[in-house]
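check these tokens.
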Amino acid sequence: MKRILTLMSTDHLSGPLRQLLQLTEHVRNSHPNQYHYHMGFTWPAALPEPELFQELRGRGIHLEIISQKGRLDFSLVRKIQKLIAVHKIDLLQSHGYKPSILAFLLKRKLGLPWVAFLHGRTAENLKVRCYFKMEKLVVRKADVVVTVSERMRREMLDFGFSPSQVRTLRNAINPDAFQTNIPEHDADRLRKLHVGRNGGPVLGIVGRMSPEKGHVWFMDAFQEVLQQVPDAILLLIGSGQEERKLKQMCAARGLNGRVHFVGFQSEISPWYSLLDLVVMPSLSEGLPNTAMEAMLFGRPVVATDVGGVPEVVEHGVTGRLVPVREPRSMADAIIAYLADPAMRATHGANGRTKVLREFSPHVQADSLIKIYENVLSGALDKNPDARSTSS
């Protein structure tokens, strides 16, 4: 059995972490007794553990909490080195810039095989751009760099990476994790509870309320939508640092009756069933889980043309792509869908077919296992045309 130490640094069940949990589960199920995962999280010693850690333990995850003292704790490498020795780790896997720096130092010290995952930037500011550039520098020493989209892979090649070093492993979606056939009376009850008896169309933004998700600029677009479709409703499903600002903005603009904040929802299936259209005004993305989830429920997606979004949302087929921070373009795309229920239905059906065909977790797991096998055997594919391991 090969033992893999996955290094992460997060305090919530983020999109990349959900993908990782799904992926490791499928690897274990498809190849029982061949791979064992240890999931290592760095965490400040002075802070109580987040609820996430208890949730992961409840899922049967072999969790390793690596205590950190201050921002620059040079003992982390020594602590992780001890874990590696105790558990006889065969391979390192990193997710995020801090774990990648630690993996880089451990690679130099121990020579362990290292697979580095790049999920893209989670924010758009100078600090995060610097971190992402730093991450790209250190992962040069990884045996394989895994990107979640072809667009990101091309970015790494432009940055000077060898084609043989970079692999694309696109995110996947497990249909069994969602209830797509919500009873009509349950959907009606949810609509009455959170939307009222309004018979207008319901738009939704699903995900954390953080700057890079674009909620703030989307409010301009939604106001333009209301000029043409005055009975439209917008549901904001999620929570985060921008929530207070958004509530103040809606109050100032008189949108409280049209915009509903429903908070984080652990069970998301009924909410997708309630929506007529899913909107993604993101400023940056890797390969968006939200788009795949919406399409699984047969909902068309209007999204910004950023990151790996075009690899999921096919313009004019499963949704529409618009430029970032262009409210008029976003509003026009939404209004076109609201005016044409037949197009919504067709594009929604196309989207469901696409995600079921192209984003299988079984294919994703098989592709990752091939990467593991090649790295562990030292037999990396040197063929420059071997660009992607998942399609």
Summary: Residues 382-391 have pLDDT under 50 and may be disordered.
